[in-house]
Design a protein that fits this description.
2 strands, two-stranded antiparallel sheet, alpha+beta
Length: 150
Amino acid sequence: MFVERVPCVFLEEASMSTLQIDLDGPTLKRLRQISRREKRAIGDVAAHLLADAVRSVRLRPADEAAEAELLRQINTGWAAERWQRYHALVAQRRAGCLTPEEHRELIALTDERELAHAQRLGHLIELAKLRQTTLDAVMEQLGIQAPGYV
């Protein structure tokens, strides 16, 4: 069996670490092919593949429970009736026919909605930390788009 040492560089908590890996011949050959195809250094390719493999390993049961709870909180939203009321009040505001009481109700609903969005963002950040990835990556995985006005 042919073994060659290949330096592999990857990110770890915002600092660079070097890891030396012993690879068998077929794995090294495949890694070189990928490196040539992608026109990237072999160490960068190896680091990327290793990072993907590490992220794909199943979490401990406690982490899985935490992830499930974060996903539940991220997906919690207003009931349909509450959204209907909010949209009705917004439409009335645009039409210029809100009563002072309805205006206070709209402000309260808007504050509640903004607080819920901030909490959801916090849960998304926690999920990104748990998955050891970026907020953008988690949002992409979940199909969540950032509002266009940010």
